Amino acid sequence: MEVDRFSSVLLENAVRELSSLPGIGKKTALRLALHLLKRGELEVEQFGTALIQLKKEIKYCRVCNNVSDEELCQICGDSRRDSSLICIVEDIRDVMAIEATRQFNGLYHVLGGKISPMDGIGPGDLAIQLLLDRVQAGGIRELILALSTTVEGDTTNFYLYRRLSGFPIEISTIARGIGIGDELEYADEVTLGRSILNRTPFYTSAQSF
After folding, report:
1. 102 pLDDT higher than 50
2. What's the mean pLDDT in 17-28?
3. Which of 12, 90, 122, 167 could bond 6 through an S-S bridge, CB–CB 3.0 to 4.6 Å?
4. Which H or E run includes 87?
5. How many other CB atoms are found less than 10 A from the CB of residue 68?
6. SS3 assignment, position 54
7. pTM (2 decimals)?
8. In 3-state terms, what secondary structure has residue 184?
9. How crowded is the C-beta side of 62, counted as CA atoms within 13 Å?
10. Contact 204, 175 (CB under 8 A)
11. Beta bridge partners of 173
């Protein structure tokens, strides 16, 4: 049976919705839909309920903009972490990747993306003002720019550096153990951990571009 020819409108609708997810083609969406049909009704209901709750009830931490179940995420609420050290990342996947290295004990700031004029994403679309508010509040000694080593990531780094360079804080960037063009979430834990530990002042890194 060809993917574009369905014997059921209900199946076709399910495949269309599943294939709208990133990285899911119509053939994969069809396999997933047929797999769900074989599962028990309760299992499928739990699956659907989890997605609906995710959309309706998820919150964003009022401090760092990370996804959270509460107004304050578990990381920001952990008094054992160094609140004077902030690692700036694009999204929760990068937080998870860095946390997996167990080499970082500071806090995070999740921008929610990176500046990309081609995609219509400017500074106002990111949580940059929230970051500036945190810095202005005081108590921060170092900011680590841990964005992906892509053109968009470097553009965002330069923008943040210009906005933050007037504050009496150290601004560093992860070491270039992460290959040019790589996303943090795909880096192995050892390489990423060393990149955090061997971070360098941003102005030094910028001179190499």
Report:
1. yes
2. 95
3. 12
4. strand 82-89
5. 20
6. helix
7. 0.77
8. helix
9. 4
10. no
11. 145, 200
Question: Residue 190 corresponds to which tokens in the numbers above?
Answer: 């050892």
pLDDT at 150 over 90: no
Q: Give strand pairing partners of 79.
A: none
Contact between 123 and 162 under an 8 Å Cβ cutoff? The reply is no
Q: What percentage of the chain exceeds 90 in pLDDT?
A: 73
CATH number at residue 53: 1.10.8.420
- Distance between alpha carbon 206 and the CA centroid of its chain, in Å? 23
Contact criterion met (CB below 8 Å) for 149 and 181: yes
169 in the same domain as 96: yes
Average pLDDT, the chain: 87
**Dihedral sign, Cα of residue 15, residue 17, residue 19, residue 24:** negative
Q: Are residues 47 and 72 in the same domain?
A: no
Residues 33 and 119 in one domain: no
Phi and psi torsions of 36, nearest 5°: -65, -35
Same domain, yes or no: 101 and 19: no
- Show the tokens assigned to 9: 């409108």
* Tokens found for residue 34: 């047929």
Q: Are residues 52 and 72 in the same domain?
A: no
CB of 100 closer than 8 Å to CB of 132: no
Residues 6+ apart with CB under 8 A from 127: 65, 109, 110, 111, 112
> Alpha carbon of 186 to those of 100, 148, 191, 192, 205: distances in Å?
12, 10, 10, 9, 22
- Compute and round to an integer the Cα radius of gyration of the chain: 21
- Give the model's confidence band at 139: pLDDT under 50 very low, under 70 low, under 90 confident, else very high: very high
